[in-house]
Amino acid sequence: TFIVIAGFASHNRAGYIEYSVVPGTNCLTYHIKIVTYTKTSSLADRPTLLVNWGDNVNDTTSVTRTYKQALGGNYPDISINVYDINNGDNTATHTYPGPATYTISVLDVNRDAGVINIPFSDQVPFFIETTLTISSYSGCDNSPVILNPPVERGEVNVPFYYTPNAFDIDGDSLSYVLVPCRGNGGLNIGGYFYPPASNTFNLDPVTGLLTWNAPQQVGQFNAAMLIEEWRNGINIGHVTLDMQIIISQCNNYTPVI
């Protein structure tokens, strides 16, 4: 059961959860890495995040933040936060009881204020999840790794493109599905709508290329995608990527490579 706690300043912009198997543990022990992007100027801060491991055994752990940095440049008021293993801190490590499919999730209050396609976004919790399958048939698994930050800028009336540039170290096949952003209890957010476009807003299921052709309004928008992992034709897990797109008038931002 997730409980929303009132009184926190808004700050969550985007994020995702990755995992990697610990060698020599019969595919039962995993490290996780939580990456969030937050509003730098917000009074809210999270030195730890509460993780639900999804095994109904040792359900939750407070995972310690190991890195925080303001992005700056073309991305003012945005910080990256990483919650990972560091210097013997094992809060980001968990051992599962046996074969099954598990959902690892994080719910935090609240989202960034002023997200146009999420009504009253500063009152809506931020929810991300990742699933993993432990099976003797599929073998050990590591989640896809997301290489492109999920906070990007675009311009009114200019087609916007984004890809997570996901990479799978195990060589598993990846596919992509556009989904609504989620909030309290992991449920779809009431009143959520996909960013409006003059033509299309869609996601290529093979390449993961998100195309928004074209933004019509200045402001902040959020979208989410499942990055699904396939092995021998079987879906063995997914990573949920919740991203924020900031649309401005034409400002001729320097391309970021």
Cα-atom radius of gyration:
18 Å
SSE order: EEEEEEEEEEEEEEEEE
Q: Share of helix among residues? A: under 10%
Report the principal-axis shape.
globular
- Tally of helical runs: 0
Strand content: over 45%
How confident is the prediction overall: mean pLDDT? 92
Largest sheet: 12 strands, mixed
- Measured between the Cα atoms of the first and last residue, the distance is 42 Å
Which regions have little confidence, pLDDT < 50, spanning 5+ residues?
A: 1-8
- Please give the number of β-strands: 17
Structural class by helix and strand composition? mainly beta
Question: Your description of this structure?
Answer:
The protein has 257 residues and is mostly beta strands. The protein has strands at 12-21, 29-39, 48-52, 60-72, 75-83, 93-95, 100-108, 126-134, 145-146, 151-155, 160-162, 166-167, 173-179, 197-203, 210-215, 219-231, 234-248. It is built from no helices and 17 strands. Strands 1, 2, 3, 4, 5, 6, 7, 8, 10, 13, 16 and 17 form a twelve-stranded mixed sheet that branches. A hairpin with a 2-residue loop joins strand 4 and strand 5 (75-83). The N and C termini lie far apart (42 Å). Mean pLDDT is 92; it is low at 1-8.
